[in-house]
Amino acid sequence: MELRTLNDLFMHQLRDLYGAEQQLLKAMPKMQAKITSEELKQAFTQHMAETQNQVKRLEQVFQSLGVEPEAEKCKAMEGLLKEAEDFMSQDMDKPVMDAGLIASAQRVEHYEIAGYGTVCTYAKYLGHTQALNLLKETLNEEKTTDEKLSMIAETSINMKAENH
Ligand code: FE
Ligand code: FE
Ligand code: FE
Known about the structure:
It is built from five helices and no strands. The model has no long low-confidence stretch (mean pLDDT 97). It has one domain (6-163): Up-down Bundle (Ferritin), CATH 1.20.1260.10. It is 82% helix and 0% strand. It starts with 5 loop residues before the first helix and ends with a helix. It is elongated and about 55 Å long. The protein is mainly alpha-helical. The structure holds fe (iii) ion (FE) (3 copies). Residues 21, 51, 54, 112, 142 line the site of one fe (iii) ion.
């Protein structure tokens, strides 16, 4: 498709996010299965449910804009997930695995925060209020998840990875 306007770019960015969320949703159970810490497992489980909802929310965004939901393969998410997969396939102590999974997950969250930040700015400028409100909700979930992961790492997992 030809990209001529900011609105075209907005659609392109939304399709990338729609692809990224679906790719992530598919990979999350494999990461979840490698976690030992109960606290981290719970955080992952919660964000898996949120991610499922974020896919639906993007469908509502497309709907509010009067277009069919369409996903584009997100090559960055593919790379982040490949890196996480390579990491998980290595032999390591369990607390180190937990700490490394947090690092992988936070890379993903930061990518999502960048993407949703951009589409929120576009939606605001273009006056797509309904889309903006939906996208803001997701942006907040990604930010909260990122903060929660930092908190879990800093209050327990990093210590366990160093002393166990
Ligand atoms: Fe997400
Ligand atoms: Fe992407
Ligand atoms: Fe996320």
